[in-house]
Amino acid sequence: MNNSPASATSHDRPDPDKAPGYAASLALVTLTTALAFWGRHWLTQPDLVMLYLLPIMGVAYRFGQSAALATSALSVAAFDFFFVHPYFTFAVSDSQYLLTFSILFVVGLVISGLMTRIRAQERNAREQERQTDGLYQFGRELLSTLDPGKVPELILRHACRLFGGATSLWLTDATGTLTLAAANPPGCQPQEDGLVVIRWCCEQRQAAGQGTPVFPDTAFTALPITTGRLAGAITIRFDPRRPPGQGVRPLLDAFARHASLAMDRARLGEEAESAAVRVRTEEMRSTLLSMASHDLRTPLASITGAGTTLRDEGATLDNNAHAELLATICTEAERMERLITNLLDMVRLESGSCPLRLEWIPFEELIGAARVRLAKSHPDQPIAMTIEDQVALIHVDPVLFEHVVVNLLENALKHATSAHAITWKLHMEGNRVVMRIGDRGPGIPAGMEEAIFEKFVRNARPGVPGSGLGLAICRAVIQAHRGTIHALNRPRGGVEFRIELPQPDLPADLLPAANPDRPAPEKLTT
Amino acid sequence: MTNTTPARILLVEDEIQMRRFLRTALNARDFDVIEASNAREARLAVTGRPPDLILLDLGLPDGDGIDFTRELRSWSQLPVIVLSARGREDDKVMALDAGADDYLTKPFGLNELLARIRVALRHAARSHARDNPETILHIGPLQLDPVRREVRIDDQPVTLTPLEYRLLWYLAKNAGRVLTHQLILRHVWGPGTSQTHTLRVCMAQLRHKIESDPAHPRILMTEMGVGYRLRDD
């Protein structure tokens, strides 16, 4: 069965291809005859017959069966003409020579048959080697492909290389709907009438179409592939000039198995990716929970303690103790509120459930609102700050960016050792607004410049309250604005935060305010 | 309040603990408190003998407080202060646009609540006296004379453009209340203007003329993501 493709090729070989074979057989027989003629006096007649087997063998090996048969016939004729009495005629005097001729002819026939088979096997071995090599390369490329989305395209490229013609890949989804995943060359997939073959192939998980017992009249072969619980099919429409032989089936099956494995691997890769995301989310959630249980319970413990003391021992406490316990309840409740607000903000930002609402807003309004908010929450810590804004309007989400301003100012207040001034400078660099916020606090320990933006990382002296979320919220908001925030220690003490935010062009109705100084009120009014 | 009868406050809240705290605190301040634990009871209380003010929780067991406010506004101008645990700006804007006079996010301190109640009651009283639009408004250091279109801050005259004046007048008439961006744009610029930044820029100019430090306002307050409020206390 294995050699049939080769024999098919030799039978189908058109006449012009045979001409060299016949020419060679004529030349070789002539040469042998000349050699035999020259040595006829000291060679016996059986030796001469043996000599003629050489050209038959050679031609059979090199040019195939028909040329070998021609060589046998020519050899018989030449032997008869030159070496059988009467010489130089085809007449035969002794009938025993007829037996010699027959044997010579039969031997030629057998040799040529054997030779042809050897040749076919050799060609077959070469073809198989090419296919094995093709499969191997296919496997290797699949392994080195990191992007699961590229796998279908890769499968088809190799199918084209191995089998020629046009290929396409079809997949069924969970509902059983058949969809085209890829086609090579693009657009050359089977049309509507071919779908029934592909569907049968997917459902039965068996090859169908050309070269199979099912739908043998189809113009293509459909090979089943499976990935997880889902099925798919590869279709191959062979090049009409290179029709598939019987021997191509094992190769097709091997290819389909490879493709299935590749699709499986791609799917598992994607699943592993989403599993990794889930693990990260889980980690975040568990950190959040452990931190929430600690940081929320601490103020709650103070409140419960103070509350029960007042309820149970209120009568025996003096006014001072009363006032102190009440103050504890209020302060701790406020602390808890801030914490909960921060936690909710963080969760909201991380879940991506708050789309940005970008608006043009005077920076002054942002900082003003933030300072009012801080004056309320830190009534005993007045903020001494200087603002150098060369940019009047910035394009941000006002609500979210107010959090950034409040958190950065709060951070500066928390770490400032005395009433050192906070500076907030704004300027444009190209189409980015750059903000530099400086304080004169104790600075950041070396190596912590990036870590302070992580969740639940605190760089506070003992006794300084904080959730470890303020700067993480700042970074999350700024990243949502596609901006950056960094911190570095200032040469003369303190920290400088640097924020960069991309800015669009000012809309036409705001253009008069675009001059770098404060908005000129008279010019702005309509 | 100058009148001697205590103001009646309808407290619509389903949380018993919250009601207890508010009742105790408001009684201590000589307010008369009627309680309702759901929207149905609130409707009954309002149609019977209308209170002077409603404190309304948004999350009621039998309906949304916003719907209740909208319904109430179709026939009454009773001041409504919304109390809600929903702290998102969208919820505030929705409640205010539905007709609420003010919005307090839980948790809040008693002082803050009392200040808002005072403002709402004063505003309601002022609306009743709307017949006289020529009254000069005195709010903190601010003085507005509607007849002469004159504005003084700490007795110093300030020159405003007509637009700035209209903006300030609208805020002053509603002193102490949060006015949403859309509400201000509709009243000052008229229908058709919806660009919030137009309002923001005008507000910035107004602050430069009125505030001593525009980057730390004490009169024209920003409620970020919601609107503006002219401080009145």
Structure description:
The complex is a heterodimer of chains A (526) and B (233). Chain A has 13 helices and 12 strands. Helix content of chain A is 55%, strand content 14%. In chain A, helix 2 packs parallel to helix 4. By secondary structure, chain A is an alpha+beta fold. Chain A folds into 4 domains: 132 residues, no CATH class; 127 residues, GAF domain (Beta-Lactamase); 65 residues, Signal transduction histidine kinase, dimerisation/phosphotransfer (DHp) domain (Helix Hairpins), CATH 1.10.287.130; 166 residues, Heat Shock Protein 90 (2-Layer Sandwich). In chain A, the strands form 3 sheets. Chain A has a 5-stranded antiparallel β-sheet, sandwiched between helices. In chain A, strands 7-9-10-12-11 form a 5-stranded mixed β-sheet. Chain A has a two-stranded antiparallel ribbon with strand order 6-8. In chain A, a hairpin with a 5-residue loop joins strand 11 and strand 12. Chain B is of the alpha/beta class and 233 residues long. Chain B has 2 domains: 122 residues, Rossmann fold (3-Layer(aba) Sandwich), CATH 3.40.50.2300; 99 residues, Orthogonal Bundle (Arc Repressor Mutant, subunit A). Chain B is built from 8 helices and 14 strands. In chain B, strands 2-1-3-6-7 form a 5-stranded parallel β-sheet, with helices on both faces. Chain B has a 4-stranded antiparallel β-sheet with strand order 8-9-10-11, covered by helices on one side. A 3-stranded antiparallel β-sheet of chain B has the order 12-14-13. Chains A and B meet through helix 9, strand 6, helix 10, helix 11 and helix 13 of A and helix 8 of B.
